[in-house]
User: Fold this.
Amino acid sequence: MILAVDDDAEDLATVRRKLEGRYAGDYDIFCAESEEEAVKALAELDESGGDLVLVLAAQRLSGVSGTEFLARTRRSQPQARLGLMISWGTWLEGETSEVVRESMSVGVTDYFVYRPVESRDERFHHTISSILLEWSREQNTDPTSIHVIGESWSGRAYELRETLQSCVVPHTFCLADSEQGKELLAGSGVDPGTPLPLLILPDGRVLADPTNREIAEADGSAVGIEGDDFDVVIVGAGPAGLSASVYAASEGLRTLLVDEGGVGGQAISSSMIRNYLGFPRGVTGSRLAELAYEQAWSFRASFSFMTRVDSLSRKAEGYSLTLSDGREVGAGTVVLSTGATWRRLGVPELDALTGAGVFYGGATTESYAMTGREVYVVGGANSAGQAALHLARYARQVTLVVRGDSIESGMSRYLVGAIAAAPGIKVRTHTEVAGGGGDCSLEHLILRDRKSGDEETVPADGLFVLIGAQPGTDWLPADISRSSGGFLLTGENLPGDVYSGTRRPYSQETSLPGVFAAGDVRFGSIRRVASAVGEGSIAIQQVHQILGPDRRIPADNPV
Assistant:
């Protein structure tokens, strides 16, 4: 159901006409002239078992503000999207602007929505359609969703869910012995002894315990590579790699983007990025990655997902990269944007429960499963703050576990304020996770005070770990210089005696001429999506300096 609340009868009538005209075929539309009428409608929806998708509330209602109504709705309907309706131009007014900013920063509202006008109002419909798309994907109600059926939440079933998430593929998961699982298995036509997990595709095809490559091919994510010689090969499809592929392909370079997963990197775990340029209402990491992928594809970039790069070596002109499928491709230049993976806690009993209550990254696909539960988030940077705010919409209580004395040093100001204002989030400073466990899934954690050494056992249903990253650079040749932490040294950070060229390297060039680093894998990079995007574009600018008119590195003289 889509619910709109406005005590101005004329304005509400316009909203009703717009919503019913476009969305009545797929959604129930209910328009209320008062808070009381809206609350009654929500109660009836609960009794019927229906889904509340979107609530639009006017800024001012009789007897209560729109933000107060939305705040109460958030607590009772955490899955719903909440929008504050304002009139065009009023966002410049001091009172209105402060309400909008404050309500969005503390998570009371998800969006601000301009009231529709009587004429054709595509701005309004674009906003509403974007909201509905986001809700559909998060709730796994997309008609293109893949069903994953497994025997447990952990193990191979969890790996498949992670794979689908990394490829931004809508999917659901259910246990084989659940009612939904039994129904899906019965309708799939598979033999009872078929090994699990199973993937049921939207077109009815069934894959039994498929490889990642088979998943990519079935979903269309494994795009065939045309040719075996490229001007630039980009390794890693996070924000930096996607940015590099857009700029390279748009400027006419033969471009190949390779990733052992899918698109987005760590960014897809961000439930909402509110400070990315051009998205005033925020954008999910997965949506941003998907749009970037489509943009690069439109410029004729080539892609190979679920494909690992096993080796990188010099050849007569440029470089050769060996892929995990046995293919070898040539590259005039290379951009390494492999990012970094979340660091592990190093607690064996918790690592054994990965996917069964323990998750590395924001794991936005698991948020609904945390409804009414005790959840812990470990980390003191922006990603941890975003995860805590998102999970607080569902969980009974979210506890943010921070090793330091505060969260102010590691998080953006807007996140610090939002966490402080969120009633369902508690912050435990100078604390670390020392242990935990459970029979089949996470049941408890052991927290240690880093000052006193005292330990406390607490009940826990979910643990989300976002404690920094470690680069995946072990596969690279030894003559690519790294920091002590494994991050790639570039430009001025390179020791003077390691660069094999006849000039000083460009700012993002590694110790191998024509090989560049961008994003989190680069030593000294700023851990922000926007910074990664910028580094991807800069890397391509420097690629042009190397390739020159013939778009190749000369055989014996790298420059």
